[in-house]
Amino acid sequence: MSSWISRATESRNAQLITTAAVSGFVVATAILGFQKARRMTRIADLKASIPEVGDAHHAQRLTEYGAASNVFAPSKEDERSVELAARARKGDYDDALILEQLARNRVFLTDPGLAKLREAFVVVVGCGGVGSHATAALARAGCSKLRLIDFDQLTLSSLNRHAVATLADVGTPKVHCLRKRLEQIAPWTHFECWNDLFSEQSAQAQLADLNGQKPDFVIDAIDNIDSKVALLAYCYNNDIKVISSMGAGCKSDPTRIFIGDISASTDDPLSKSTRRKLRLRGVKDGIPVVFSTERPGPGKAELQPLAEDEFAKGSIGELGVLPDFRVRILPVVGTMPAIFGLAVANFVILSIAGYPQEPLPSKSRDKMYDGILGALQGAEERLARALYVDDAKSLKIPITQDDVGYLVEEVYNGRSIVSGLSTRLVLARWNKPTQNFVDQNTPGQKHSLLKMNELVLMTKEEAAKHEKEILKGDKKLEEVYDAETIERVHKMMQEEERYERFR
């Protein structure tokens, strides 16, 4: 080996190659070193050019919540509360003191019930007027594991209904405001804050277990319908207990607030839209909700329209904080979200502790739906036989019991489109078919091509007249019904077409 090296070093070509390689390495090292030195010098110059942030500078340091640090400096009490909460979460807090603070709950729920509540893990989605009061009540009651989810920040207008926010919290995330303030009340509580928007795509992560513990309850305090439906459907399909708050806006009568199954909720636009979209996902009951039966009326608050100058700015969708979020002002008297939130928290506390309660039951009318479905199938057979097919016996229709329930409850509100009566109801075609609607391509089977948006709800007497004069007869709709009724049906059918995209 040594002799080979000796011969190689004596070779002129080898010497030239070695010299070139060493020279290249030295040059490359020098270039890279120069570039690094120049880059470091530029970074140092850039950093030096940035002025220090001080009282005399227009910029201000930010707190962990994203607010200016010197607008509202933390008080000594705030600092002590943060330190106490940090120690308490590590176990440095006498359990006897906790039980003393929870003494009234303890004697009400009993020791086993309170123990369940103290070990419970609850997720609150939406930390505004309703969610903040629900969270505060849970923390005060002893629930020690709370996950808070909300993307929004507090504004001045939030202070008329938020449970714990102060002027010092304006501009800070709602989830951190709740944690900061409630740590001063129940320092042993473990808060997990998600300053994030809830969505169907993130549901699995946001509602995931906490250290192996599945959520004992999820509280829906969202005011956006699509997000609300996504949350409720996810919980329903994954067997997670959930309670939903319906609309507190434009409501003023606390005596009309109820807790019951979502199928029993009435007289609330948010509740109706939520029920309707959930039914399209196959969820018709089994979700408890807090809702108000208060009806709108003369002199009562209602959703405020946008000013004309706002319409002139362009697309209305661009005026919202996020796509599909409301842009109009919803009047809210601050007491109503608080009552909704406390009602939600009360239901969760009693449910976890095993305390007896009797919410309104599900409004199950399956027997009635079956009757309407049978009557509809009979009507289709008669119409097919009269117009197109001699033998229409055993004609199948592509409508299910759930479809009937959806049309009766959510589209027509359980009332005849003609007279508004709510007894002896049936579904009937509105327009006379212009072509054969019976599919006979499958051997030994005939079925109707009937669609849901072709049906209206009537009383049996109205349907019999409608079938005789319009569906089987020669009269036109305008000859039987007034313009107002025809327009009402037209609007209902248009609305149903919009909801078809969720099916």
From TrEMBL:
Gene3D superfamilies: NAD(P)-binding Rossmann-like Domain. It is found in: Mitochondrion outer membrane. GO terms for biological process: cyclic threonylcarbamoyladenosine biosynthetic process. It is a multi-pass membrane protein. GO terms for molecular function: ATP binding; tRNA threonylcarbamoyladenosine dehydratase; ubiquitin-like modifier activating enzyme activity. It comes from the Eukaryota. Residues 104-359 form the THIF-type NAD/FAD binding fold domain. CDD domains: YgdL_like. The chain crosses the membrane at residues 14-34, 329-355. Its main location: mitochondrion. GO terms for cellular component: mitochondrial outer membrane. PANTHER family: TRNA THREONYLCARBAMOYLADENOSINE DEHYDRATASE, TRNA THREONYLCARBAMOYLADENOSINE DEHYDRATASE 1-RELATED. Catalyzes the ATP-dependent dehydration of threonylcarbamoyladenosine at position 37 (t(6)A37) to form cyclic t(6)A37 (ct(6)A37) in tRNAs that read codons beginning with adenine. Belongs to the HesA/MoeB/ThiF family. This is THIF-type NAD/FAD binding fold domain-containing protein. It comes from Cucurbitaria berberidis CBS 394.84.
